[in-house]
Design brief:
Chain lengths: 392, 379
């Protein structure tokens, strides 16, 4: 057992770190650091910088642009990006749709979509949740009816992240209502410019616009956009679940937030001393820090097992639960550190001295409540562990 | 980066697991705990025979030169089996202090005796009012002729009644909490003036309050430089704490496994109680606590004897002890709750594991103590 990076791994980390210092644009780093909303252009600019470097899709097969990095190198890369304050890579195309196409796509589908995903030509979103189908996803009702060489899609998706930026959406749709609920589902790719699609914003409690409702009204989808066989969509969805990326713990990003929190709390006075020296506050920060130290090792232990060739299992769920709990605790402590100054939200009229950074702290706390709900709520993750890993 | 045990570490783990399975089952442990001595010389000889007593000592002293990571699997097995013998006291505390700071002759003689299973030791350090402050030493050592005379009382010295020799801390100068002025002395447990008020701890170990009444020791009984013992004591305490965290991991694992098994076999309302989601989610949280505690124990064991900066070493060990104490409390409480009334019973091992984990959470510093220490050693 050796818990230190090897010299090669350290050299790799330094190389990535040095490259990020040179190539991550300052304005993007600043926007991320101030928790500002990132535009479509912001996200795609960073995507294309990485694509040009050849690092946008490390886990893909070499022939499609992958890097042949092993799991630890991939982990180092993702965590360094997070720690440096790089914009997030939106996973819907790069990791989700691409994984599905690589596993189930026809040669023509791969040829058509993968290079465009790689280069950032298409922005993808994910059409899974519906108003009546959240955790019980297989109960979804959006219908796709075959008519000649098209499906005609009717229904509604919801909580669709960044649908307002997207060129394409991959959807789970019901192609056969008669069978048991998991069996009549198909996986289709839909052009967001198709007639009959309406995107309606859902504004969240932080005032931000990142999710949407997507309505399908007699939307025609060519049959060649079906992935895998008709009725096998649930197989595809389950495969995707198992192959979600391993950086779900977001260690690098949390390490950066922890440093920021400590630095911020050291500047907030309490009873004539820095807040960080207040034992009651300090102990809360320390417990989160210890949990994060532990999760980093836990994450690496799991990665090490994957390096041995084992498929990822329920441990990903554990990383998701603890990782999101840590992220949420950090946003809450940041708000606590701001004290009464966490209350101002938006200026009314001209307000030259309005502190935008301070005003972003409480909304971020609100926004991060999503992390224990999305991508399979933390309760669903516990069900997965109980069933898959504990045999309950 | 490598998380698997090496081939050698695996061999050690296998032999200790075999030993535990054969000689340290739950019934065997119960009779050892109930025996007049409260520990087993036979088990001790067996530990020597399979090399566990020599494992952490340097090869030039007859040991096997193992590092803390090499002892992880040993400690886990001991935590699983709830071993009560004075292993940590002998090899990680008193024996380590002698091996690192004792005179040439003292190291040779004592380490050889430990390795061969002829010597059990304890570290007599804690005192009334000290809580977990390692610098709090009121016992005095005064120069007299060619040696010293020791006076004072040591509280809750784990394994003192099992020990042939003690390493005793006493002040040669300075006030009660001064970091300077603490010295260490090797004292025979039967020396004139040493008396013990012995008892059993809640988790089945033997311990004693040790009175030192004009105990005369020669000059060469001193371990390390006069007045300079605190850094040595801190190092040994960190080392023992890292190993204690690994022991806790073994006990936590047992509590999780036993509880999971119970959830699958205990039936109520016509189904195994593990079918209930309220219990499933609590079980999952126990397992997450276990994995997180294991990660911190691994980190502490990997760094405690390789990290050259004492502040960083102490910071990491404190972080591990915070997590261990929290996880020990969480998992032990949940394991009893999920076992229902059976979890309370003396008949079930899980109630013994509960008691051991409750005490481990306090041994060598509770979470609050280590939260303070972590903050002091940060940055």
């Amino acid at each position: 057992m050796d818990l230190n990076y090897s010299p090669e791994e350290l050299a790799f980390r330094d190389m990535v770190r040095g490259w990020l210092r040179e190539n991550l644009p300052d304005d993007l780093r600043r926007k991320v650091g101030r928790y500002e909303e990132l535009s479509r252009d912001d996200l795609l600019r960073w995507h294309r910088i990485l694509a040009k470097q050849g690092w946008i899709a490390p886990s893909w097969p070499r022939e499609w642009g992958g890097t042949d990095w092993d799991v630890v190198q991939r982990y180092i890369f993702e965590e360094e990006c997070g720690y440096a304050g790089a914009p997030p890579l939106i996973p819907f195309g790069l990791t989700m749709c691409a994984s599905v196409l690589l596993k189930f796509g026809t040669p023509a589908q791969k040829q058509r979509f993968l290079p465009r995903i790689y280069n950032g030509d298409d922005f993808w979103c994910q059409g899974y949740s519906e108003p009546g189908s959240g955790s019980d996803l297989a109960s979804l009702k959006t219908r796709a009816v075959r008519q000649g060489d098209h499906y005609v899609v009717n229904g509604q998706k919801t909580w669709t992240t960044l649908a307002h930026y997207a060129d394409w959406i991959f959807c789970l749709v019901r192609t056969d209502a008669a069978e048991k609920k998991q069996e009549g589902i198909s996986f289709v790719l839909v052009d967001m410019k198709s007639p009959g699609i309406t995107v309606r914003p859902l504004i969240l409690m932080d005032g931000g616009h990142e999710v949407n409702e997507v309505f399908f009204d007699d939307v025609k989808v060519p049959v060649e956009n079906l992935v895998h066989e008709e009725g096998k969509g649930w197989t595809v969805a389950k495969y995707l679940l198992g192959h979600e990326r391993m950086n779900t713990a977001r260690i690098g990003g949390s390490r950066r937030e922890l440093e920021k929190l400590k630095e911020f709390a050291s500047r907030q006075p309490k009873d004539g001393r820095p807040l960080m020296q207040d034992v009651r506050f300090r102990d809360k920060v320390t417990r989160v820090e210890v949990e994060l130290m532990a999760l980093e090792i836990t994450n690496l232990r799991f990665l090490d097992q994957l390096r041995g060739g084992r498929a990822p299992g329920a441990e990903v769920s554990m990383l998701k639960i603890r990782g999101t709990e840590i992220q949420q605790a950090l946003t809450e402590l940041m708000m606590e550190a701001a004290g009464p100054l966490a209350q101002p939200f938006r200026p009314v009229g001209p307000a030259a001295d309005f502190d935008e950074v301070m005003a972003g702290i409480a909304p971020r706390y609100c926004n991060f409540r999503k992390t224990s709900i999305y991508a399979g709520s933390n309760e669903i993750q516990r069900n997965i562990i109980a069933k898959m890993s504990l045999g309950l | 980066m490598k998380f698997d045990y090496s081939e050698e570490q695996r061999l050690v783990a296998d032999s200790v697991r075999r030993f535990v399975a054969q000689d340290y089952g739950f019934e065997a442990r119960k009779s050892i705990v109930a025996s007049p001595q409260g520990w087993s010389r036979g088990v001790w000889a067996k530990l020597a025979e399979i090399g566990l007593l020599g494992l952490p000592f340097p090869t030039e002293l007859g040991g096997f030169g193992g590092r803390a990571v090499d002892l992880m699997s040993v400690m886990e097995a001991m935590g699983d089996a709830l071993v009560v013998e004075p292993y940590l006291s002998t090899v990680a505390l008193a024996g380590r202090l002698v091996a690192r700071a004792g005179s040439g002759a003292m190291r040779q003689e004592l380490v050889a005796a430990i390795v061969e299973g002829r010597l059990a030791m304890a570290f007599a350090h804690g005192e009334e009012g000290a809580r977990y402050d390692l610098a709090h030493v009121a016992a005095r050592a005064s120069r007299k002729g060619a040696g010293y005379v020791l006076e004072g009382t040591k509280r809750v010295v784990l394994h003192a009644p099992c020990a042939d020799r003690l390493v005793v801390s006493a002040r040669t100068s300075g006030g009660v909490a001064d970091p300077r002025g603490i010295s260490l002395f090797l004292v025979d447990a039967k020396a004139r003036g040493v008396s013990m008020n012995a008892y059993r701890t809640l988790d089945g170990l033997r311990a004693a309050d040790v009175r030192l009444d004009s105990v005369a020791v020669p000059e060469d009984a001193r371990v390390g430089a006069e007045g300079e013992a605190l850094p040595l004591v801190e190092e040994a305490a960190d080392y023992a704490t890292a190993l204690l965290c690994a022991e806790a991991v073994g006990a936590i694992k047992y509590a999780c496994d036993a509880t999971l098994e119970y959830l699958k076999t205990r039936r109520q309302f016509g189904v195994p109680i593990g079918a209930f989601q309220a219990l499933q989610h609590r079980m999952v949280d126990m397992v997450i606590s276990y994995e997180q505690a294991r990660s911190m124990a691994s980190l502490a064991c990997a760094r405690v004897d390789t990290e050259s900066d004492p502040r960083e070493r102490s910071r990491i060990v404190s972080a591990a002890k915070i997590k261990t104490a929290d996880a020990a409390r969480h998992v032990s409480q949940e394991s009893v709750q999920l076992h229902g009334g059976m979890g309370m019973s003396e008949e079930l091992k899980v109630s013994h594991t509960f008691r051991r984990l409750t005490m481990i959470a306090r041994e060598l510093g509770d979470a609050d103590h280590h939260l303070d220490r972590f903050a002091r050693n940060s940055r």
